[in-house]
Amino acid sequence: MSASTKPRDNWGSKLGFVMAAAGSAVGLGNIWKFPYTAGDNGGGAFVVIYLFFVIFIGFSVMLTEFAIGRRTQKSAVGAFKSTDRRWTFAGVIGVTSGLLIMGFYPVVGGWAIAYIAKVGTGLLSAPEAIGDSFGGFISDPIQPLMWMAFYLFLNIVIVMKGISGGIEKAGKILMPLLFIILIIVSVKGLMLPGSMAGLEFLFSPDFSKIDSNVILAALGQAFFSLSLGMGCMMTYGSYLKKKENLVQTTAMVTAMDTGVAILAGVAMFPAMFAFGMAPTAGPGLVFVVVPQLFAEMGGIIGLLLALMFFIGLSVAALTSSVSLLEVVVSYLIDEKGLSRVKAVITASSVMAVLCIFASLSLGGVGPTLFDTGAFDIFDLLTDKIFLAVGGMLVCIFAGWRLKREDLEDEITNGGEVKFPLFGLWYALVKFIIPVAIAIVAFMGISSGFDSGKGAIMLLGVGIIAGAALISKKF
Ligand code: PFF
């Protein structure tokens, strides 16, 4: 990872680390995925469960990943492998998740960049056409592919040159800006007549809407949004100095990530309800609601804010996707002995092919599995299965393979940092989280069989089991 993730001995660099880790966490998952997933899964009840998972599972898993990374001083695969070769597969699953997430993330990243151009060339002048224009755009076979290629190209340049420091610096300015724009969007949305219904949808839970699908969706969203379950935060942890306070760092990254997600929800739903749109608008939500709101605002201010929003969204997406690409690249460099250039080309070529399938599937082109297109397959496999099972494996590894004293030593910096909840954290990691994830995944998969999605998720479990069985080969 970049030089700026290597902290120096002062507070400034500590903030640098937090911002780098938050740069990975805050991305399309918060601003694009969270609102529509909440919308699809009943609103308030989903949000409550999501927050519960973030606090009890996400926080603990992030702390575990940081601790393992810093203890072993290695990135994903190496961290497992150096402790116990039989655990190598857990790292390899993380790398596979990175590859698969990058099979659709750049497609959406491409949309974000395309929308900078679209807003700049008059999208806002015909507010009534914004919805149709999005539908037409993503189902077009060519246009989104070109934007995806451009987005992926930016990732390649950044990771190949090892200059992610530059993008992190851009993130440091643009992320707070994005935050401010989200606040403006929220205030603007809340001022529209009929907007309160949106807040109610988001915050007053109707628990009758909860079923095992909703619970698994909330768990998956927590992992995806916090960049957990694939060794990404382990790699970041390996760059942390021994004297940094891991608990505090984890709390800051978790709070920032969750704050942005909730804010994105507040920015979207009141406006949506005011515009009479259905909360189940799906993946197009942010691309339709935000331009519509700024079109409504009108004038040069509306235009500038819309432009800044999509620039901010693109940069937030980039700071996340470079961390995804880097996980795969560092695996190829460290474990397969490739040069950085070759590693980047190999990884991104596979990603490009996956992205072509993903993008085309939205226009109904290309192969399907159980009636599900490539975009949804990659999303389902990673967000619902790989990341959650990856997080479960991290916990089992820490709880059962590493020594309790070593973990305590690492997390408390040899007794210097007080962490009165250590016992609770340890019990969560060793017993409760693995069992909870197993139950949630099992129930989610079984109920997913109604829609054919269960079969795809089961396939994901099969892939993991297969990887574990042949793990000695890795
Ligand atoms: N957390 C990122 C987002 O919310 O967009 C996505 C992501 C990045 C997931 C890195 C996993 C990861 F390792």
Automatic annotation (TrEMBL):
Keywords: Membrane, Symport, Transmembrane, Transmembrane helix, Transport
Main location: membrane
Segments traversing the membrane: 12-32, 44-68, 89-117, 145-163, 175-194, 214-239, 260-279, 299-332, 344-365, 385-402, 423-445, 451-470
Keyword Membrane in annotation: yes
A Pfam family hit: SNF
Family matches, as NCBIfam families: Na_transp (NF037979)
Name this polypeptide is given: Transporter
Organism, scientific name: Aliivibrio fischeri (strain ATCC 700601 / ES114)
